Amino acid sequence: MKKKHLERVAFFSKEDWAAGHNLGRAEKLLESINLSDALDINDLLELYHVKLYFDNDMFLLSWDDTLKGKFNARINQAWALIKSFWLGIDNENVMGYINQLEFNYKPSFWELVDYFQVYKKIDKAVFVNIMDTFSFQISYILACKNIVQFFDREIRSFLMKHPTSAELLLSRLEEKHTGKRPEAYFPKSLNLADREAIMDSYLNGPDPNVNYVRLIEKCKDSPQLKLSAKLRLKAKRTAAALNTTIFEKGHSWKEGVQVSISKDQQDPVKYSRKQGILEVCYGEDFFNRNKTDISLFQVFRRLFAYLDLTGLITLVSKESELDTLEKVLMQSKHEYVIGTTYQRKSMLAYLQLVIYADYLNRRSLSLEVIIESVVTDFFKAQHQITLQFKFPSGNATYLEKIRTLAPDFEFLLRQYQAFVKEGEIDMELLQINSVPLYFSEIPSLLPKKYAYSDHEKIRYLKYLFFSDQSLLHYVEPFNSQYRNLYDLLVNEEVNIENFANFQQAEIHRLITDDYLRLDANNVVRIKQSYFLFVVGELYTNNVISYWHYPDAIRSVIDDMAVNNLLVFESTLFTKEELGYFNYHLNKKDYTNGIDLRNKYAHGTNTTSEKEHQSDYYILLKLLILAVLKIEDDLLLHQQFS
Fold this sequence. Notes:
By secondary structure, the protein is mostly helical.
């Protein structure tokens, strides 16, 4: 009986977490196969996929050295058969073999054609026929550098007329992907003008995909893809038209934020949700109890929660806050990720600022005067740092305020940078220094300010313990009651027998590695609680604000750094916070950036006073966040120096 393709071994990557399942299939295959039997092309490709596991030093833990040696010998025999078979491919039989390929093995077929240089035996006319007949295999062909170079002009001609060539280019050059993807090689003869023509043809086509149209609109210039302003405008208009069609034919839902202040409410804040609208009501009595400038300013941290308890800006976009659908939606790799949670946080922060400014005006106070007082007076009195900062006149238009505030905001950060580096602020020196300010270069007063990790082990533990996509997330009888495995084990007594057979191997591995333990009743318990707590913080925020944690946690973080699981940086802003500021202020990193600093500096801003007001409040929000971060840095330095 012919083997079903879904039962075959498939190697996807070294990081693929289904490796154990596939190696189990490989074991059965190598124990049962007779290499003297007639093997078809898919049988040989399956053996090639087993070889890929072995080449990457991936074996089942249950295999001893003897069994590994036996399996390796069998794969070496199979490799000789594979080589002989591929060297027999020519003009006469290549079309038939391509027609037989199972889905998972199509890329590997071309990989071996490239490796054994079989393409040199295929006439150009035959290759053109292959592309025309099996057009969707072009993506596999483009992963093969030698084939692309050999058939350069033929592939260029095909791409110029292929209806999804724009999608191929955008997918490889602009789209953001999770995990590693094979390199894509495009013909050298396919120049920038050709690539623009392909994009233009796609926009004129009968059914362009709105996701790819948005990528054209927001595409970042590169040596591989440089699109004209005219084409981008066309893409913008096409995307708008497609959105209108989608809303007319499809489904939509309401999502929003409403903020108010109640004179009668005793609680500082109450939250409710009605028909998709988050309603937030603040008690005016709480605001009235704040009498000093610093206490009025601290409302942004203590009540509005612009910073969390560890001094991190809460308003940034976080991968941990994206839902499953948002994670798989198409995005540009040069785009600031804006999910539903981020949008809600952004709307709430903006409305908090507007409504609080209105409240202060009713008390004959000014938010600008309060901020100015904190920066120039409070910081000097409490932290012995003299900073110069002054808001524009209250009578100025919003446009005038922005054009004055933007450079003064930057100058404030220059002063703090000088204070940290030099221990003093030489105003005369700063005033003649025209070197651009990079937020990433503003240091912290403290060493080891932030800890980051991109270690494979930490990524794996974040996935297993804290992701709702983990293979260990769903456990009967608790089902999806908890967000992740960590929360489940902390809140419930879960017996090892509760885990399904396919989960047991991973649980036992975590026990062997000392992250979990079994108690006397076979209940699975967390063993390294502090360590996994730190992993959870990294999952949530992508960063650890070191000095905000107690000694016991800092000790664990230090040990992780010694073992190269973490690295420290000493900056005022985290990497995520830098992304947030850059998204709002410029287009240095993100093609969808708001570009506040540049558009007002270069006169490309709107003429609408309403939009000027909105932009001013956004800039004011960024200033408040920066002042809060400076204050946090000063407080920590005062505590730990």
